[in-house]
């Protein structure tokens, strides 16, 4: 396994560590009902988050890795961000025909700073650069206006409205489907 390590102007993306610090950080993120509002799961307890990190590390060790679930930290002056506390979560789930879905989840204390755009941009670099993918897609709850703006700003195009895409707490919700192709991403020819 080659561990993922991406750096942007303000943020770094790395593999999770199975440490109390990373478990606490993921728990802080995934236990907040405001954060999970548009995600396909209910708030999670600490034990579930610890199990999740174990799963992410198993996925990372797979012979043909198709799932990247990664920790996002602030980039520090000392460049010690490999061990800095995660403030967000990022994911890439590979599918058929050189495609993947991307995702990002930020703690409420760092909303509104433009971080999601930087995270999604780094995931595009990974997907279209190192992984050589052709298509990236994202599904966004129709009410998640901030996330739709993040994708649109990066050049993602709206493909359609997916009806009853998610069933949560007995309630159906619809999503917008967005996509970006490799030749539309500036780093790979767009
Ligand atoms: C949605 C989310 C990713 C946005 O990340 P962020 O870093 O806070 O986004 P930004 O600061 O870049 O804001 C994006 C844009 O949405 C706007 N915005 C924020 N909240 C908004 C709201 N409730 N309604 C309308 N626009 C909103 C911002 O003003 C900004 O617009 P601008 O680029 O024109 O200035 C973040 O809030 C989050 O992680 N939420 C919980 C998990 C989640 O929903 N993940 C996405 C699943 S698809």
Structure overview:
There is one protein chain. By secondary structure, the protein is an alpha+beta fold. It has one domain (about 5-135): Gcn5-related N-acetyltransferase (GNAT) (Aminopeptidase, 3-Layer(aba) Sandwich). It is built from 5 helices and 8 strands. The protein has helices at about 20-30, 35, 45-60, 115-130, 145-155, and strands at about 5, 10-15, 65-75, 90-95, 100-105, 135-140, 155-170, 170-180. It has an 8-stranded mixed beta sheet, with helices on both faces. Helix 1 packs across helix 3 and helix 4 (about 115-130) packs across helix 5 (about 145-155). It is globular. The model has no long low-confidence stretch (mean pLDDT about 95). It binds coenzyme A. Coenzyme A binds near residues 39, 105, 114, 116 and 150.
Characteristics:
190 residues, alpha+beta, Aminopeptidase, eight-stranded mixed beta sheet, 5 helices, binds coenzyme A
List the helices and strands and how they pair.
Elements: E1 5-7, E2 11-14, H1 20-30, H2 33-36, H3 46-61, E3 67-74, E4 88-95, E5 99-106, H4 115-130, E6 135-141, H5 145-154, E7 157-168, E8 171-181
Parallel strand pairs: 5-6
Antiparallel strand pairs: 1-2, 2-3, 3-4, 4-5, 6-8, 7-8
Bound molecules: coenzyme A.
- Helices, by number, come to 5
Look up the CATH topology: Aminopeptidase
Q: What's the structural domain tally?
A: 1
**Helix/strand class:** alpha+beta
The percentage helix is 25-40%
For the largest beta sheet, what order do the strands appear in spatially?
Answer: 1-2-3-4-5-6-8-7
**What bound compounds does this protein have?**
coenzyme A
Mean pLDDT: 95
Please compute the radius of gyration using only Cα atoms.
16 Å
Low-confidence stretches: none
Largest sheet: 8 strands, mixed
Q: What fraction of residues sit in β-strands?
A: 25-35%
The CATH class is Alpha Beta
CATH superfamily caption: Gcn5-related N-acetyltransferase (GNAT)
* CATH architecture heading: 3-Layer(aba) Sandwich
**Can you tell me the overall shape?**
globular
- The helix-strand sequence is EEHHHEEEHEHEE
């Amino acid at each position: 396994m080659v561990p993922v390590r991406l750096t942007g102007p303000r943020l770094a993306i790395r593999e999770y560590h199975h440490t109390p610090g990373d478990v606490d950080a993921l728990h802080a993120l995934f236990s907040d009902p405001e954060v999970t509002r548009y995600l396909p799961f209910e708030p999670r307890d600490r034990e579930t988050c610890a199990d999740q990190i174990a799963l992410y590390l198993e996925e990372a060790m797979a012979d043909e890795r198709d799932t990247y679930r990664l920790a996002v930290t602030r980039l520090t002056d000392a460049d010690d961000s490999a061990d800095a506390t995660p403030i967000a979560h990022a994911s890439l789930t590979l599918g058929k025909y050189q495609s993947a879905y991307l995702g990002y989840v930020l703690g409420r204390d760092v909303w509104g700073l433009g971080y999601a755009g930087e995270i999604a941009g780094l995931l595009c670099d990974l997907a279209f650069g190192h992984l050589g993918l052709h298509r990236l897609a994202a599904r966004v709850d129709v009410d998640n206006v901030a996330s739709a703006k993040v994708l649109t700003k990066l050049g993602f195009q709206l493909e359609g409205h997916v009806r009853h895409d998610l069933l949560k707490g007995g309630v159906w919700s619809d999503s917008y489907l967005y996509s970006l192709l490799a030749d539309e991403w500036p780093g790979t020819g767009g």
